[in-house]
Amino acid sequence: SNLVLEPWIYGRRTGLSPLAVIVSAIFWAWLWGGIGLILAIPLTVCLVALGRHVPRLRFLNTLLGRDPGLEPSLRLYQRLLAGDAEEAAELLDRSLRTKPLPEVLDTLVLPALRLAEQDRHQGLLEEDRAVQLRRILREQFEELCEESHPPSTGDAPTVACLPVSDEADELAALFLSQALAAGGYRTVWVPSEATAGEKVDRVEAAHAELICLSAIPPGAILPSRYLYKRLRRRFPDLEIILGLWGTPPDALESGERVAADGRIHPARSVSEAVECVRRLTVLHARPRGG
Questions:
Q1: In order of start, what are the domains of the chain with their CATH numbers?
Q2: Which of 25, 134, 197, 250 is the most exposed place for a label (fewest CB within 10 A)?
Q3: What is the pLDDT of residues 195-253, one digit of tens each?
């Protein structure tokens, strides 16, 4: 019982996570022996304090700290950084039991993914750790959602979910396709390693009736503009939605920067994108048969 209770008690009193208490004791004892074991908690608390006050060391507080006031997305990011797949899955499972899928994506999953992308672009998160983080997030989320999708109806439109650029955009596009599938839509999802031409070909092969582009800032405008031009050239009449996940309300003019023709529908969240798909489906519905 001491192996469970002591890290939990020490963690609550020092602001460290129980996992950080255990890991710090092992690390400092390995480094300095008995003296390291005695100093393990104070030294680790100092590292967490540095992480709270030095922006470039923020990951230390995220990785080691235990703050009950953290937003759920920050707690998820913390667990993903620590490689704690079990607790990440628990956070996801709790949210999915009480909230609809688009809301979970908007308030928990995509904010955590945005934090990772911001840290990666600033050089605070190494590429191999970012890859591991995305892998854990994808595996846990897919496992929880794999049996939750109702079958699409025969007349449901096909929506193509396309990543604008990199692996983070790809993961967000996959999550969007799952949210649309949960709403009864048929979806086609294209991986990020596909070229712009291959993405266009996949849309045509799937006979998609709507296209959703997925982009996580920063650096989303230029690749979004390029892909939009390629799509519009092949599909002049298809409706295209641009998901710039998590952008502030006053940044939706980004849609105008992407589409000079003004024929793109910007969305800041998965909930907005799903509602936009519903609205466009109703708008373009046509009587069938006879």
A1: 2-145 (1.10.1240.10), 158-283 (3.40.50.280)
A2: 250
A3: 999 999 999 999 999 999 999 987 788 899 999 999 999 999 999 999 999 877 655 56
Instruction: Collect all residues with Cβ–Cβ distance below 8 Å to 239 and sequence separation of at least 6.
Output: 210, 211, 265, 280, 284
Task: Report d(CA 151, CA 161) in Å as an integer.
Answer: 18
Q: CA 141 → CA 65, 95, 103, 263, 284, distances in Å?
A: 24, 11, 14, 33, 32
* pTM, full prediction: 0.73
CA-CA-CA-CA dihedral for 72, 221, 174, 252, to nearest 10: 60
> What would the pLDDT profile of 140-192 be if each residue is shown by its tens digit?
888 877 655 555 555 788 999 999 999 999 999 999 999 999 889 999 999 99
> Nearest-CA neighbor of 191 among 215, 218, 162?
162
Residue from 284, 249, 263 nearest 213 by CA:
263
> Which residues are within 8 A (CB) of 7 and not within 5 positions of it... i.e. 6 or more apart?
18, 19, 21, 22
277 forms beta bridges with none
